[in-house]
Amino acid sequence: MPGLGTWRSDPGQVQEIVKQAILHGYRHIDGAWIYGNEAEIGNGIKEAIAESKGHIKREDIFITTKIWNQYHKPDDAEWAVRDSLNKLKLDYVDLVLIHWPIAFKKIKENRWSQSEDKKERYYEESISLEQTWEGLEKLVEKKLTHSIGLSNFNSSEIERILKVAKIKPVTNQIELHPYLNQKELRDYCHQHQITITSYCPLSNLKREGDSVTALNDPVIEALGKKYNKTSAQIIIRWHLQHGLIVIPKTVTPQRLIENADVFDFELTTDDVNSIDKMGEKNLRFINPAFKPGNKGMFD
Ligand SMILES: NC(=O)c1ccc[n+]([C@@H]2O[C@H](COP(=O)([O-])OP(=O)(O)OC[C@H]3O[C@@H](n4cnc5c(N)ncnc54)[C@H](OP(=O)(O)O)[C@@H]3O)[C@@H](O)[C@H]2O)c1
C-alpha cells in the first residue's frame, strides 16, 4: 500500500484527505515540520480513529516527521519533534528524518536562513551530521519516535552516519521516479539494509520553464493502455515492484482511491525495464539552492 505525501497539501484540505486516506486503508502518512500543516494532519488522524469505531488504532498508523535544517543541534531537534508532536496531538511518531543533510543557522521568523535579498544563506558550521544523528538517537531513547532515518542523503553522507550510528537509519527518503531512478544510490542503500522511500514519485512537479512529467510520457501512456490502468497507477506499481516505499501526495479524494488501486496487476520484467530506461533522462525536480553546487529552485 502506498503512503500519503502531504507537502503542499493546504491546511484547509489536508485534514479531510488524511482522514479519508486512513479510512480507505492507507497506513503511512508522510509529513514534516516545515510543511506547516501538522496540526491539521493530527486532526485528520484523530477523526479517522474515532470514525473507525475501534477498528483502527494509533499504533496501526505509521507517521513520519522531519527535522528542518535550522534544528540540527540535538536540543533543537528535540524541540522540533516535541513541537510536531504537540501539533499532531500524539505521544510519539514512528519515524523522524533529518530532512536535508544541511544545517542552517537558527533565525527566528526566517526559516530559510536567508538575507533579505535572498542572495546570502546563513549556514550553521558548528554542528556536524554525526552530532545531529546522535541527537536523533536520543529521541528514540526518550521514546519520542520509534525509528530514525535520513532524507536527501547521498552515499558519502550516509557512510558518515553509518560510521557512528548506534541505531541504524531505517530509510533514506529521496527524489525517485521514472526520470530519476537513482539506481546507484538504491544499490548502495540495499547493500546496507536501508530502505528507500521515493518522494515526488509521480514526478508531477513543474520545473523552471517547462512542465515535464512522466505521467504524460509515451512509454507510461502505452503501458496504461496495455494494463487498462492510469499513468499514476503504472508508475506507483513500478515503485512497488522495485521494493520501494512510495508516498504520492494528493488532496483529491478520487486520486487517493486511484493511487491505492494497484494490486490487481503486475508489470512484466520487460515493462519494468522499459520504465527503468526512462531514467536515462536523469531529471531532478527538487534542486534547492541551499545544497552547495545546485542550480537552485523553491527559495
Ligand atoms: N524529503 C523531502 O525532501 C521531500 C521532498 C518532496 C516531497 N516529499 C514528500 O513526498 C511526497 C510526494 O511528493 P510530491 O508531493 O512532491 O509529488 P508527487 O506525489 O509525485 O506528485 C503530487 C502531485 O501529483 C498530483 N497527483 C496525485 N495523484 C495523481 C494522480 N493519480 N493522477 C494525476 N496527478 C496526481 C497531485 O495533485 P492533487 O494533490 O491536486 O491531487 C500533486 O499535484 C510529498 O508530498 C512529501 O510528503 C519529501
Which ions and ligands are bound to the chains?
NADP nicotinamide-adenine-dinucleotide phosphate
What is the CATH H-level superfamily?
NADP-dependent oxidoreductase domain
Our Rg estimate from Cα atoms comes to 19 Å
Query: What's the mean pLDDT score?
Result: 94
Order of helices and strands: EHEHEHEHEHEHEHHEHH
State the low-pLDDT regions, or none. Answer: none
Count of separate structural domains: 1
CATH fold naming: TIM Barrel
Assign a percent range to the helix content.
Answer: 25-40%
CATH architecture tag: Alpha-Beta Barrel
Mass-distribution shape:
globular
Structural class: alpha/beta
Strands side by side in the biggest sheet:
1-2-3-4-5-6-7-8
How many β strands by DSSP? 8
Tell me the name of the CATH class. Alpha Beta
InterPro entries: AKR (IPR020471), Aldo/ket_reductase_CS (IPR018170), NAD(P)_OxRdtase_dom_sf (IPR036812), NADP_OxRdtase_dom (IPR023210)
Protein name: NADP-dependent oxidoreductase domain-containing protein
Keywords: NADP, Oxidoreductase
GO molecular function: oxidoreductase activity
Provide a descriptive summary of the structure in words.
- It is a single chain.
- The chain is globular and about 55 Å long.
- It has one domain: NADP-dependent oxidoreductase domain (TIM Barrel), CATH 3.20.20.100.
- 38% of the residues lie in helices and 12% in strands.
- The longest helix is centred in the first third of the chain and has 15 residues, at 74-88.
- Helix 3 (74-88) links the parallel strand 3 and strand 4.
- The model has no long low-confidence stretch (mean pLDDT 94).
- The protein has 10 helices and 8 strands.
- The chain is of the alpha/beta class.
- It binds NADP nicotinamide-adenine-dinucleotide phosphate.
- NADP nicotinamide-adenine-dinucleotide phosphate is lined by residues 5-7, 30, 99, 151-152, 173, 199-205, 215, 230, 232, 247-252, 255, 258-259, 286.
- NADP nicotinamide-adenine-dinucleotide phosphate (NAP) is lined by residues 5-7, 30, 99, 151-152, 173, 199-205, 215, 230, 232, 247-252, 255, 258-259, 286.
